[in-house]
## 1
Amino acid sequence: MNSRVRVAGLIALLDPQWRAKIFRGGLVLLIPIIGWPAVMGYRARFVRHLFANEPTPLPEWRGEFRRHFVEGLRAMGVVFGYLAPLYVALFALVTSRGFVPDSSTLAWTAGFVAIPILSTLSFPTACVLLAMAIERWISPVEAIAFIAAFAAVVFVIPAGFCQVSRTGRYRDAFALGAALRLIARHPRTYLAAWWHSSVMSLAGHFALSLAPWGVVWCYLGILVLFNAILLDDGAVPRQGWLQRALDDPRLARTAGVAVRDANGEVVRVIELGEYAAPLPRWVG
């Protein structure tokens, strides 16, 4: 897993235009409302490159924005399809106790729509607000139970997306039995993928001025970590850019050897333990 963590952080270097593509992804992410779905769709296309003999590991942005956006909406449909029963259960509970949506509810909803990258936090946010309201629409214990259920569902979602990687069909993301069996066959690897993905996500989202590009970088790395489990499972052929990246000596940890990208250019890399992240431009 440790070598995979490094590969996850550096796989973009195998693309001759890695800087331009990640830079464009960061700019797209800054577009209100439609930016995050488009980046989600770019992620989905990247998964196809991981297991196919595409000319480059990273998808193109030019001429593909519309396709990425539509693909991203489908990916969001999977995420919120998993979470929908929780939203329905919470709404049914509080309305049975007399809750009626008001202007503040509309304001919170509009905020999550305007900044969709935060939309997955809408459910735990709602639980906290409903528990803290003067009317106490739900008790603290109920809020904790709902948030725990939310965490359990989110934990399974990457395994659901792995089914999409395997078959190419979004409806297979809801093959819950197959997703749970994948986790059961590789529990340690799956847990490790979650841990390392969380670390990369925190680094990417809190990269200060580089945050938009850091988010795109961590999204790519997260997909590498989870989809590599499919290689362990024998569920996909060992071809495409994921296997090529795992076998590429340029991405291995070699003391005293500079990291070079697909163009042969030396790239400055930040390293912390097994984690590695390329900087946008070489300085020095």
## 2
Amino acid sequence: MVTTVFTDLGGVLLTNGWDRTARRRAAEQFSLDYEDMDERHHLTFDTYEIGRLSLDEYLNRVVFNKPRGFSREDFRAFMFAQSQPIHEMLELMRQVKQHNSVRIVAISNEGRELAQHRIDAFRLRDFIDAFFVSGFLHMRKPDRYIFLTALDAIQAPLQDSIYLDDRLLFVEIATSLGMNAFQHVKYEETRDRLLSLGLKLG
């Protein structure tokens, strides 16, 4: 009997918050040197994503390292706007929550400000009970301790828990810890997998 559903956010319930595609769009929108921005991003983003830098500090290093003809507020607004809902998956998780006695818990690699925006903008607290986010915890997947921290804090028995993620590596790590984990590829497969595990969807 499933009592806890652990899920990733980006790539499962929402689009990725600040991925390569979004950064290319930003470079085009704001006439930035994409190669320079991307190199600076890769040298800096992991530190931001585990909460060791604020978003403004990240932007100072990656975008506002020189005078720009646009404001920080405009760039932040553009960043936040890249996050979009995956409607059918959000509805699926809402159905899981509504029709089953389960907790839904997010385990996600997100910088603090981006994560908070996404939680608020898409009303994730309506159906997600707890958020184990890299920017809040100062650890990130693939570190297995982010999974162990979530399991300990929620007190979720492994045999009654499932985990879904679009990244196969993270699924493999969860599986190695004894979680019933599977890769989310498309809505229909995930829906059928949840049904096969005995969850009701209305």
## 3
Amino acid sequence: MKKLLTAVTAAGSGLLGASLASKPGSRRFHALTASVAATWFAGARAAGPVPRGRTAVVQPVLAGAGAFGGFYGCALVARRIPLLRRAITGVLGHAHHGSTPTVVTTTLVTGAAEEIFFRGTLYDAFGARTSTAMYVLSTTATRNPALVLASATMGTLFTLQRRWGGGVQAPLLTHVTWSALMISFLPRLFPPQDSSTGGVGP
């Protein structure tokens, strides 16, 4: 089973890299991001059910909101660092050029799929540290330093939420809350004219 999950992680990572390298707003981007989410869901399903854990809602949502606040502050600083500014605007180009409802839906569904796979299936199969490391490694396929840094920070928080909640509900709610706030407010800090029209690399 571990070999299968490792293969699924590699496949999903490759699709993730290809999706973010696609032209913002293109059909290819939406098709590939849907494939990423489908890969995570399929991998989790193949391994069997994942624990739901506690039914708490307030704490995970507050954790996601608090994480957004920290990232927003960091984004204000990142705007002054060319390498990070280009990396972030490259990612947010998809938010600026795509249909807002579609982009938001894609972001939230993919985030939920990540939690079910990484904090559910991989956590149970490999443990907290290895599953977090695999989560961070999966984002290196994007070749985007901002995403890698974010995955390291949030991956650690999501893992702590999984440990606290005993299942995927807590990290899933934290992830979805954080993602919804990020996609709603962060694009305003990085207008589209600052980003390239294709790709996410610096």
